[in-house]
Input
Amino acid sequence: MKITFLGATQTVTGSKFLVSHNHRQILVDCGLYQGYKWLRRRNRQPLPLDIDKLDAIVLTHAHLDHSGYIPVLYKQGYRGPVYCHPATQALCDILLSDSGHLQEEDAGYLAKHRLSKHEKPEPLYDRKTAEHSMQLFRPLDFDQPKEVGDMRFWLQPVGHILGAGSLILECEGKKVGFSGDVGRPDDVFMRPPRPLPALDLLLLESTYGDRRHEPGDPLEQLATLVNDTVAAGGVMLIPSFAVGRAQTLQHLLVRLMDEQRIPKLKVFLDSPMAIEVGEIYERFVDQHRLSRADCHRMGQVITLVRSVEDSKALADEVYPHIIIAGSGMVTGGRILHHMKRLLGDHRTTLLLTGHQAGGTRGAKLLQGCDKVRIHGDWFDNRARVERLHGLSGHADYAELGQWLADSELTASTAIELVHGEPEALEAMRDYLRQTTDFEVNIGEYERILTL
Ligand SMILES: [Zn+2]
Output
């Protein structure tokens, strides 16, 4: 069996690993490169892979850096199956279509402002192609084995987001694990990652290989910030990711109200995508920590805002109130319209809730900029800008270490570190070398491992 690293090497995006044995091939994850332009350019370069010889794709979870390249392969003629958890399929249905839409918008923007060297810049793929590629999806429940030639594989739950799994693959007596993105033991929403079985090789994510999550209770911090905003008589704006984070925030706010730690106030979820994702979380209620009653209670308290007219009408709502809207790093979405009218007001709190990648508007706001450029115009920022800690969907290095310790791995397990920035990968390698007997290396692009 051969494993070729085709993505998520020295970076956190573009996950792709090709497993081949006896002329049969499986691609584990099919992710888009995101973030810096030099990385995104790789999405346009041909993959060193013969599509006609690819038998199957398997996804660990729905995030675009693991799934967003599927429409590209579809466009190039791939018509084989895409196996993933049914919840991943449901989430991809929303995420891939949205990704196609954004690709079209980006190409349109480049054309309008003549920013491309091409006469007519083409999107990587459009919404229609993304939607057509969903025909290839085949549900694979946790622990349900599937075979391609002599290779046998299955998914096991790993927390992180709904439907996320680690992939275990065995072939001729050898067993390989692909960690996928590993969740946290005490996540508000998701259950802890399941320990791994004995493996010969593990490809381990290292997003937080050089960091520990800040201690502290997000519920406590959120209560303080909401109460401060209420006392100031302002609006709390929460830019949020649609998958996972928006649902967690709603749940935390409802809990704080029910426990009377914050006053009952209006909370608007102004994101059609997050609303759709919420419905999927409710459909797969046995896959996370929340009960049907919790989900129902969220529906009673939170006001869902779908249409653009209703979103605009939020300008007439009495203060104080809370608006949750996309996007998580303030790079787009409806939150921008609310920021334009509310950032100049010192009573406003802008609460960032996740990692803010370098160069994004979210990162600049965290650094304390007093002017923000939105849709081409500059706006004064007098709002209180804060970051809510403790909601990360990724295990930090100590939590990853504990997960490995709880697993059935032995000293003969080799570990290849992937899905991390270079500093994180090096720190993770050093940490594991110091604290364990595993043979630990950092995965390199296009390297081929033979087992
Ligand atoms: Zn992920």
